[in-house]
Design goal:
single chain; mainly alpha; extended; 0% strand
């Protein structure tokens, strides 16, 4: 019984430290996220799904947890000051998702760089518009 306490102590120590603390995750541009870091790490998909439903099903575009805002804040730039896709290896989304072997499919439709950036739309299909915003402008211009 006395020999088990080191194992219990080690388990308690490991449980108190997040695995994400050991990853080299690029910081966002702001001082803090819209939610505490630990909450965002665990619940970001629930927030995105909830706000997606508000936007797509109810037409509410004034949402708190917007994927566009995440991309705007967390996208890094390269030496040429061009935005690096947020889902590229070593970038904000990819670091954690690669560590836990989770596929990111958000950017097959959504832009992986801010709307004012050039060169990458998130999709590998060059025929798709730069962003949903560009598509909406195109639709608005139609007769």
């Amino acid at each position: 019984m006395l020999l088990r306490w080191p194992a219990y102590l080690l388990m308690a120590l490991l449980a108190s430290v997040s695995w994400a603390d050991w990853l080299d995750i690029p910081r966002g541009k702001g001082d803090e996220c819209i939610e505490p870091t630990e909450i965002m790490r665990k619940q970001h998909m629930q927030f995105l799904f909830h706000d997606r439903d508000l936007t797509m099903r109810e037409g509410n575009r004034s949402i708190r947890h917007s994927l566009v805002d995440c991309v705007d804040c967390h996208t890094q730039t390269n030496q040429q000051q061009e935005a690096v896709p947020i889902n590229a290896s070593g970038q904000f989304c990819a670091v954690c998702h690669e560590a836990v072997s989770v596929k990111i499919d958000c950017f097959s439709c959504h832009a992986a760089v801010p709307d004012n950036s050039s060169g990458y739309s998130g999709s590998m299909n060059a025929g798709l518009p730069e962003s949903v915003h560009a598509l909406m402008k195109k639709w608005a211009a139609m007769p």
